[in-house]
Write a structure and sequence with these properties.
Structural class: mainly alpha
Shape: globular
Strand content: 5-15%
Radius of gyration: 20 Å
Strand order of the largest sheet: 1-9-6
Order of helices and strands: HEHHHHHHHHEEEEHHEEEE
Number of helices: 11
Distance between the termini: 34 Å
Length: 294
């Protein structure tokens, strides 16, 4: 049901970029996920630029390369985000918000009013939505466009065989997972990979490495559209921690790629301005992706 709305957002975001003959794709790729997160939460669409900025903060906090001044600024901006979401949540709780009944804020407000969750828990869920639904998907879209810019023949194949785009999205997820790892804390004595682990030990589980395991994937570093199990990667997690927004992320990325390919006859990386990645041990995200249209 969201696809027509997402496609309209994609076309709106792409129009000036296409008219200009390309340019930095990153701001373009960030707009659709920011709008989607705001829509799912039930926030005003006119605040999309604030949503886009807030969506990028979670990864920066976990980047491992932030100085004290940067952390202080992010803490201050996080407080502003929490206040903004808190106001909209409170309006939903007292029945004065403008969000639709199916929005996440309205559902959270219902949980608070029904005693299922606390107001603090509801606010925390709303805050997590920005990073989980915004930064991750915009990172995925950026990586996908970079790979197509580096492989014009592949881009042309996807223009003519659009049914392969979902398979391409899965390979991008496998090769360029937006989140490269997650931390975990051992709760009971166990063994993993031949190592004895004790309660309190901390693990850094590298999804990016698991996705290129040669024992699981043939030619693990190659992009292949004919893999037997295209979704057999770890980029959305597993089990209880499986990403609840994975279908939305896949939809946004597929639609964005369809519109990029439909609106161009060819595009390449700007030879004078190479892509720039965020300095982060946690997120695989492009900060700049200069593209030249054919």
């Amino acid at each position: 049901s969201l696809e027509p709305r997402i496609r309209a957002w994609a076309r709106e975001a792409l129009a000036p970029w296409l008219a200009a003959g390309g340019g930095d794709f990153v701001p373009v790729g960030e707009r659709v996920p920011a709008k989607a997160v705001g829509h799912v939460l039930g926030l005003p669409e006119g605040d999309v630029e604030r949503h886009r900025a807030w969506a990028m903060m979670g990864g920066e906090i976990l980047a491992g390369d932030v100085n004290p001044a940067g952390l202080a600024e992010m803490a201050s901006e996080t407080a502003r985000m929490a206040e903004y979401l808190g106001q909209h949540l409170q309006a939903a709780i007292v029945g004065e918000g403008g969000a639709s009944e199916s929005s996440l804020l309205q559902l959270l407000a219902g949980g608070v009013n029904g005693g299922q969750i606390t107001r603090s828990e509801a606010a925390g869920i709303a805050i997590i939505m920005f990073g989980a639904g915004g930064e991750s998907t915009s990172s995925l879209i950026g990586s996908a466009v970079r790979l197509l810019a580096e492989n014009p023949d592949l881009a042309q194949r996807l223009r003519t065989e659009t049914g392969l785009i979902p398979r391409f999205v899965e390979e991008v997820l496998r090769l360029e997972p937006p989140f490269k790892f997650h931390y975990r804390v051992i709760r009971r004595e166990c063994e993993l990979g031949g190592y004895a682990l004790q309660p309190g030990d901390r693990l850094m589980l590298l999804w990016a490495a698991a996705n290129r395991d040669p024992a699981v994937f043939s030619r693990p570093n190659a992009l292949q559209l004919d893999r037997k199990h295209p979704k057999h990667h770890m980029s959305f997690g597993r089990g209880a921690h499986f990403c609840v927004g994975e279908q939305l992320a896949r939809l946004e990325t597929r639609v964005m790629l369809e519109e990029v390919l439909a609106g161009t006859t060819g595009f390449v990386l700007d030879s004078k301005r190479p892509p720039v990645y965020a300095r982060s041990i946690f997120v695989r995200r492009l900060e700049k992706l200069p593209i030249v249209l054919a």
